[in-house]
Write a structure and sequence with these properties.
The protein is an alpha/beta fold. It is built from 11 helices and 9 strands. The strands form 2 sheets. A 6-stranded parallel beta sheet has the order 1-4-3-2-5-6, sandwiched between helices. A 3-stranded antiparallel beta sheet has the order 7-8-9, covered by helices on one side. The model has no long low-confidence stretch (mean pLDDT 98). The structure holds pantoate (PAF). Pantoate is lined by residues 28-30, 58, 61, 128, 131-132, 150, 153.
Length: 282
């Protein structure tokens, strides 16, 4: 596996692969790999000839007061794991290499970015779309794999790709969970012991809300109230940022669950903000 730090070098190599008819796959990450990231790499590896994994803690998707400086990092371990999981290239750019001092071009999908995580992180998806688009221009992938835990991110990227005719197939990979149900996240390291014990109940609560919907409670407000009460009882110390039921594709709020919907939550613990979601099919 080759470690590349310069965007130009990655672009040159990928253009070369492309000219030889190689199918390039991309897994964009911010590093500090866990099983979730590794399963994205395994999935992408099966869909491509050359696998590029990017490791970049993208400053433009962090808001003021967020954890950009303290975001967990371990490049050496990440490089070893990426290689074990079939990466041909680990792309680790410097922030200055990705953004010129006078960078002024942004990609936004405002309608889909205003709710859910976007409500409390107003510029987050603008940063995500811009960096993902830049990674697409550099790595020229035919396929890119993203986790379904960040469902809003995945839906927005799909829309960006559609709207801008970017020739890449976007694959969403199912959420990878600990044995007790907690969705894997690099930020789980911020949880205290007690929070870690209670956090799996987020998944338990979402699953029982989905069961409730299947057995006939389809009013979104009733379901949201149920989730709020259950979280208060089962995840003490957790403070919901949002509890929403949305259309899985457009992310618009739904009033009544008909056929497919997505329950999405973000819960503040003391230092961590955990997100999770659950698909409902009625
Ligand atoms: O999901 C992430 O880790 C990031 O948002 C991404 C897609 C790598 C863009 O920085």
């Amino acid at each position: 596996m080759k470690i590349i730090r310069h965007p130009r070098e990655l672009q040159q190599l990928c253009m070369d692969w492309e000219s030889k008819g190689r199918r390039i796959g991309l897994v964009p990450t911010m590093g500090y790999f866990h099983e979730g990231h590794l399963s994205l790499m395994d999935d992408c590896r099966k869909r491509c000839d050359k696998l590029v994994v990017s490791l970049f803690v993208n400053p433009t998707q962090f808001g003021p007061g967020e954890d950009l400086e303290t975001y967990p990092r371990d490049e050496e371990r990440d490089a070893r794991l990426a290689e074990e999981h079939g990466a041909d290239v680990l792309f680790v750019p410097e922030p200055g290499g990705m953004y010129d001092p006078d960078h002024g071009t942004w990609i936004q999908v405002p309608e889909m970015a205003k709710g859910l995580c976007g409500a409390s992180r107003p510029d987050h998806f603008r940063g995500v779309c811009t960096v993902v688009c830049k990674l697409f221009m550099l790595a020229r992938p035919k396929v890119a794999v993203f986790g379904q835990k960040d469902w809003q991110q995945l839906a927005i990227i799909r829309r960006m790709v559609r709207d801008l005719n970017i020739p890449v197939e976007i694959t969403g990979h199912p959420i990878v969970r600990e044995a007790d149900g907690l969705a894997l996240s690099s930020r789980n390291v911020y949880l205290t012991e007690e929070e870690r014990r209670n956090a799996p109940n987020i998944h338990v609560v979402l699953r029982s809300a989905a069961e409730k919907a299947k057995s006939g409670t389809t009013n979104a407000e009733t379901l949201k109230r149920f989730i709020r009460d259950e979280l208060a009882a089962k995840v003490p110390g957790g403070r919901p940022d949002y509890i929403e039921i949305v259309d899985p594709e457009t992310l618009a709020n739904v009033n009544e669950v008909r056929q497919k919907a997505l329950i999405a939550v973000a819960i503040f613990m003391s230092r961590a903000r955990l997100i999770d979601n659950f698909s409902i099919e009625v």
